[in-house]
């Protein structure tokens, strides 16, 4: 990937990500560059009108002689046009999205964290008879040689209500199983517990049992490398794989100080990244 002059936009063989001049909109352009129309896939998506964003810690966090930064842009409005399999008419759709800008200098990703989790839950207000919301939580554990520390940050953005930012959180992997991957054990569920504050200063907590119900993808991060180089890296450095799942009928239990407890229904996306 090549970094643009603005130090934000990036471009590669298949993917381009660029920001608008006023930094309020992101455009994603993907094409798998297959010449056969039946195999070609192209996606153009924009994400804008974000809720107020935030960063982990002080922004740039120092670890293992380098720096890492994660900036969250939650609850963006997404519009996408997708063309695939030689369809005469593209698929056009819209929804909510979360953008995470991850930057690092002087350190490789596997030295930042060895286990990563991203959980996202949102709803369809028309179906659920509830106001629109988007919940997300990112969790990772630093390598044992750098302390094995858990880093977790999350938020829930609700329509016409104060945003809630969670900073004291846990993500507990339950009932590990080796049935999905030959490389890593995958949890049958993840118990997520969050504590934080609303944007107007009220205490808040949230509980959620994330379940990898519907398997979507297993991504071999080193899959494009030469087999000999890949084997060397996996044996001596790291073996990175990404696992993605969907969850129907997710239930979030939310308690805000001075308000009744509410249960928010929705659909979930769970991504697990293993880099041991």
Write down the overall geometry. globular
- Structural class, by secondary structure, is mainly beta
Helix content: under 10%
What are the low-pLDDT stretches, counting only 5+ consecutive residues below 50? none
Q: Main sheet, how many strands, which sense, barrel? A: 9 strands, antiparallel
C-alpha end-to-end distance? 24 Å
- Whole-angstrom Rg: 20 Å
Bin the strand percentage.
over 45%
Number of structural domains? 2
**Helical region count?**
2
Strand and helix order: EEEEEEEEEEHEEEEEEHEE
Average pLDDT, to the nearest integer? 88
Q: In total, how many beta strands? A: 18
Protein name: Survival factor 1
InterPro entries: Ceramide-binding_SVF1 (IPR051385), Svf1-like_C (IPR033394)
Domain Svf1-like C-terminal: 130-274
List the helices and strands and how they pair.
Layout lengths: L1 E2 L6 E2 L3 E5 L5 E7 L9 E8 L5 E2 L5 E3 L2 E19 L6 E15 L9 E8 L2 H4 L4 E9 L8 E9 L5 E14 L8 E13 L4 E8 L3 E7 L6 H10 L4 E16 L5 E13 L2
Antiparallel strand pairs: 1-2, 2-3, 3-4, 4-5, 5-8, 6-8, 7-8, 8-9, 10-11, 10-18, 11-12, 12-13, 13-14, 14-15, 15-17, 16-17, 17-18
Organism: Smittium culicis
Pfam families: Svf1_C (PF17187)
Protein name: Survival factor 1
